[in-house]
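Radical_SAM C-terminal domain-containing protein
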Amino acid sequence: MSKEYIIPIFLPHGGCKKRCVFCNEYSATGFGEFPKYRDLDKIFERYLSYFSEKNNVYMAYYGSTFTGMEKEKIKYYLDYSQNKINEGYAKGIRFSTSPEEINEEIIDILKNYDIDLVELGVQSFNSEVLEKSNRPHDLENVYKAIKLLEENEIYFGLHLMTGLPGSNYEIEAYSVKETLKTKAKTVRIHPSVVLKNTILEKLYQKREFIPETLDEAVKKVSEFAIMIEKSGKKVIRYGLCLYGDQIRNVVAGPYHQSFGDLVKTDIIYKLIDNLEEEVKVPIKLKPQFLGYKKRNEEIIKDKSIIFEDRVDIEYGRRKGLDLEKLKKILL
Ligand code: SF4
């Protein structure tokens, strides 16, 4: 599968009926205004100039409840993107939205466009956690949205979070298991980070919210990622995505600029730890096996991992390492 190139377009809090405790999209994205067509053109051209290949480009609307906006606004952005698709510059449209804003009327609109992926912000499959997090939806909305997307064969992905108010390991593992029962194509999973000007910041200052430590978050996310990848779904992102100055908006919690690398390092650690005998691994995966700041160096020595130029995939499978899958996760 060739690399996908994403043009992200931020519509901060567009269509949001409530403010989730962890969210301040102005703080998280650094953008305050909604782009008009000429701004969209500029964003499009700028990103296109960064891409080494221009034939696998997707436009993605983030930072909002996309389908919660007024219908005219939804169509405005979808029409813009569809024109780019019709002109041959892009292949599909993605957007993030909240489950209560997926209904029959919205599905009818979406059917007129080349929607590649609907990213559904579920965050948790526990009612109490949803309530404490001030999410705009309940579990019924979640299951209804999933059913509608599945019935209408619209590809979708689910967003999950760890460390939300009222959440714990068992609840999060249950959320992952519920996710695996769906036809979701992708999963995003990230820990709760306290950002400036959020409800969570106030709760944190009053000591009513204690974030996970970085170590706890990495261990949980890597464990869940292994479960998800084993099921055949793809984890498209670990950790929160913040750019440049926005990192200064982090008040507390498990934020790390290399969170994804820490998770991948821990995934490898867990897989190696389970091996019972010496295993050969393709040398091209050596940096990934050593992991972030060579944290896995010791366990690699202990478990006698041998790096070789060519390693037969079947050999890896026999030894309990699915090298094909690992390449997809690590490279
Ligand atoms: S629905 Fe999404 S964008 Fe809106 S406040 Fe909640 S997390 Fe933020």
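thats it. The radius of gyration is 21 Å. The chain has 14 helices and eleven strands. bye
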